[in-house]
Amino acid sequence: MMSKIFDHNAKADILIVDDTPANIRLLSVFLEDRGYNVRKAINGNMALTAVKMIPPDLILLDINLPEMNGYEICTRIKSDEQTATVPIIFLSALDDTLDKVKAFQVGGVDYITKPFQLEEVLARVQNQLMIQELQGQLQTRNEELKTALSELQQAQSQLIQQEKMIGLGQLAAGVAHEINNPISFISGNLAPAREYIEDLLDLIHLYQEEYPQPTKAIQNALDNIEFDFLISDLQNLMGSMERGVERIHAVILGLRIFARLGESDIKTVDIHQGLDSTILLLQHRLKQPGERPEIATIVKYGDLPKVTCYASQLNQVFLNLLNNAIDALEIATGHGESAKSSVQSIDSSLEGETSFSLVESPTIWIETETTDCDTVIIRIRDNGIGMSEKTRSRLFEPFFTTKPVGKGTGLGLSTCYQIVVDKHKGKLICNSTRGEGTEFVVEIPIFTTMT
């Protein structure tokens, strides 16, 4: 509690608790003449009621009181969170060392022996009020430092995120440009190549019809190249190349949609298109043949309108949430041991656990829907290991991570929170139960205003 001693617009409030009227009258007049506001109580119940109604800045407390002694009064005041910081100076005729020690043990800050000198009382009162004032200032500075640190961490997180997004856009642009030209060349030549090959095969068949008896050298060449198999397999090869080119075109398109290259910062987009492009870019992590079971993705899209949003940033949210789901499922399937050990070191709910119940069918569910409040909801859920309440409560703190050193910055979910809540004025909620998986719920307005 901050003292009012240096507040020229308010007087410090002092409560005197004593059952001797002469003492109360003497102290009251003396302190009021020095500019203090004085309240009086002649027993414990009156004192506790006065303190509860309006906590004073300081209490002068006698020990020998009717019904309840000063030690008990002090103990009860200090046990109440609302009044625990009020300084209490004991004012008593008891001058035994044990009495003074007990006064300090129950929470007193000073002890004055009766009969007292008024100037001594004033000096001790001023000293304790000064201490309270300085403690209040220190607490205020600490709160300011905490706020500044939080703002600094958020600013640092935003700067890192901006650099990542710029780097991602530049990388996407470079990859798309470098790959798109040669793939377009290959794609454009596959169709005429197929026609040329078919023409050549037709010509060979015509030769076979006109010259049914090949020479020995030609027959040996036909046998060596397994001509009949070559003809049948050539069509499969051409089909495989065409499908490969189509796949690369799809990846490039997904990369462009994900990074939103060459588009304005905020625009109206199809949320499902962004989700699909993100899933496409994570196929290498979802499948990973030979290492663990393939992670199934079950998509259930609602009938969403186009959403005005920061599209590339929102896609970054989807990427972070899906990557986290994959990390959790790798642990749940018996992989990702380094991540598992880091979770154990942070998550107190894992203490004593030696193994996880392995998930045989790792799955990620992605669902979308609209609400009656002109918002859209995106749910990303997995059947991984889940998390404790302790871990869940810290998820969105800047630089908090459950990954080993060097495996994560702890900025992913903090960045997601800033993008969804601060940038889009939406909501980002995590629902998780240990052993039952995790669900992230993203809710954003259909129309986001420029900020």
From TrEMBL:
MF (Gene Ontology): phosphorelay sensor kinase activity
InterPro entries: CheY-like_superfamily, HATPase_C_sf, HATPase_dom, His_kinase_dom, HisK_dim/P_dom, HisK_dim/P_sf, Sig_transdc_His_kin-like_C, Sig_transdc_resp-reg_receiver
Swiss-Prot/TrEMBL catalytic activity: ATP + protein L-histidine = ADP + protein N-phospho-L-histidine
EC number: 2.7.13.3
Domain Histidine kinase, first and last residues per copy: 174-448
Gene3D superfamilies membership: 1.10.287.130, 3.40.50.2300, Histidine kinase-like ATPase, C-terminal domain
Residues in Response regulatory domain copies: 13-129
Coiled-coil segments on the chain, per record: 131-165
Keywords: Coiled coil, Kinase, Phosphoprotein, Transferase, Two-component regulatory system
Residues modified as 4-aspartylphosphate: D62
Class in the EC hierarchy, top level: transferase
PANTHER family registered for this protein in UniProt: HISTIDINE KINASE (PTHR43065:SF50), SENSOR HISTIDINE KINASE (PTHR43065)
Protein's name according to its UniProt entry: histidine kinase
Organism for this UniProt entry: Lusitaniella coriacea LEGE 07157
Biological classification of the source: Bacteria, Bacillati, Cyanobacteriota, Cyanophyceae, Spirulinales
